[in-house]
């Protein structure tokens, strides 16, 4: 009887050993399958994201600012004395607030910018940033459906030409002045400054009666230390730049507005609003 039990014991021992081996093989195969699936999914995700992220990398480092969001560019070096701000869209309206932060609760320059078509007329302005550190803050105050492309650069900044500086004239507080331009003028330079007093102005680009294509509401605490310079795109005909000194009469300013680029291929048969092109 004992010999029968001993003879049967190897069979009994093989039973429990064989059964876990079969049960153990199934989880191993499942884990291997899941690992392959995860690796496959990761490869798809990586291959779809990395090229998209690396494709728009350019030297200008343009950033997309969604509607209602804020982006900042900080410059700690005192050697950065001016920066250029460029804003554009894909053809939709552009509505933004631009501020210069210099220390806590100190905003020496700020402006409100509206452009009817940010692709046809991108906004480009130079902001003086003496005595760093300085921070340029751009807030898209438009709706979330209207993102803007913002870029702030500190090298190769535009500067006013000698003609623009020489053409500066005085605009008293509360007064306005208009500058009509030829249809062949594609862009104009605008330079505003004071003798050290605050600068408050409203710059409008009109194309037709009371048809604002671009509006800039500007404030600068010192128009001599921080003058305003911008290049306005003026495609088409009937373009007029209107500058209003919104400060009191005790705060005059000087304004220089001259053509920046000329389109020699402009057709003479283009419609001219007002008919004053020959004068």
TrEMBL record:
Alphabetical keyword list: Signal
Family annotation (InterPro entries): DiatomPyrShell (IPR057491)
Signal sequence segment: 1-19
A Pfam family: DiatomPyrShell
Signal as UniProt keyword: yes
Name of the protein in its database record: Uncharacterized protein
Organism placement in taxonomy: Eukaryota, Haptista, Haptophyta, Prymnesiophyceae, Prymnesiales
């Amino acid at each position: 009887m004992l010999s029968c039990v001993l003879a049967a014991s190897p069979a009994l021992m093989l039973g429990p050993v064989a059964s876990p081996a079969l049960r153990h093989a199934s989880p191993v195969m499942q884990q291997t399958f899941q690992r392959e699936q995860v690796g496959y999914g990761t490869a798809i995700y990586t291959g779809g994201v990395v090229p998209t992220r690396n494709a728009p990398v350019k030297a200008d480092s343009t950033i997309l600012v969604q509607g209602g969001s804020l982006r900042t560019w900080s410059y700690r070096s005192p050697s950065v004395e001016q920066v250029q701000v460029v804003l554009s869209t894909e053809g939709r309206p552009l509505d933004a607030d631009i501020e210069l932060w210099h220390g806590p609760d100190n905003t020496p320059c700020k402006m409100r910018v509206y452009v009817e078509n940010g692709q046809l007329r991108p906004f480009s302005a130079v902001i003086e940033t003496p005595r760093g550190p300085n921070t340029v803050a751009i807030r898209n105050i438009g709706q979330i459906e209207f993102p803007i492309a913002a870029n702030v650069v500190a090298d190769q900044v535009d500067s006013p030409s000698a003609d623009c500086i020489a053409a500066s004239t005085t605009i008293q507080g509360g007064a306005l002045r208009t500058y009509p331009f030829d249809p062949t003028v594609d862009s104009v330079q605008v330079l505003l400054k004071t003798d050290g007093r605050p600068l408050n102005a409203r710059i409008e680009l009109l194309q037709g009666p009371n048809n604002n294509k671009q509006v800039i509401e500007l404030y600068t605490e010192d128009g001599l230390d921080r003058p305003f310079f911008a290049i306005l795109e003026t495609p088409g005909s009937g373009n007029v730049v209107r500058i209003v000194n919104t400060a009191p009469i005790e705060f005059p300013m000087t304004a220089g507005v001259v053509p920046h680029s000329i389109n020699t291929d402009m057709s003479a048969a283009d419609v001219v609003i007002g008919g004053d092109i020959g004068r």
